[in-house]
Amino acid sequence: MTENRRTLVGIGGLAVGLFTVAIGIAIAHFTNLPETDSLDNLIYPDIPREWIFTTLGQLIAVGGSQMMVGGAVFGWLWDRPLTWVRASVGAFVAWFELVLFFGIIPSEMLNLAQGPLEWTSRTAFTIPKWLVLNNDVSVSWFTIKDALVAGYYTNAFVVLIVGVYMAQEWIKKRDDATPVVELSTWGRPLSKGSA
């Protein structure tokens, strides 16, 4: 693929991703508005107001952000010689991904569980007494919420470590496959017959 075509694909990925993020943010924003204003006038009565639509909008925005990241990586970073500018862009993309997957997504999971789902004070289930020596043991949704977020963090961290390791192994194999060019004393490549 030519350099210009890769750049166009990268710009296209950024544009489609940005449009998708805007759509997702609009869905999440408008479905999260209150139904009435301070004067009891209806605000956009045709728009549904349920947590499902807000969460769907957030998921669409996350998908769009990943399209943007993919467009930036493919258009300007993937399989290109590393320069300071490309390293800086790559570091920014990595920072963005870490903030998204280790900060924003778990925070929104907690906001959803504590807000619309009201998982802070309700009992999820009670363990039968014969399993716990005739004691009353119940598990709250609060505990399940914390376990889900802790499991998310653990799995995301494992995926990060395994992904970085696999990327390094792939780069090693690719670099081993490229032929080594011998250089002269002055740093120029040697050609056949020269010593």
Features:
flat, 64% helix, mainly alpha, 195 residues, two-stranded antiparallel sheet, 4 helices, 5% strand
Structure description:
By secondary structure, this protein is mainly alpha-helical. The chain is 64% helix and 5% strand. It is built from four helices and two strands, in the order αααββα. It has a two-stranded antiparallel sheet with strand order 1-2. Helix 1 runs antiparallel to helix 2 and helix 2 runs antiparallel to helix 3. The longest helix has 37 residues. It is flat.
Helical content class: 55-70%
* Order of helical and strand elements: HHHEEH
**Structural class, from helix and strand content?**
mainly alpha
| Rg calc | 26 Å
Question: What distance lies between the first and last C-alpha atoms, to the nearest angstrom?
Answer: 36 Å
Strand content: under 5%
Dominant shape: flat
Mean pLDDT: 89
DSSP helix count? 4
Largest sheet: 2 strands, antiparallel
Record field, number of beta strands: 2
Strand order of the largest sheet: 1-2
Q: Uncertain spans, ≥5 residues at pLDDT below 50?
A: none
Short description:
The chain has 195 residues and is mainly α.
Please write out the topology.
Blueprint: H1 3-31, H2 51-77, H3 84-114, E1 123-127, E2 137-140, H4 141-177
Antiparallel strand pairs: 1-2
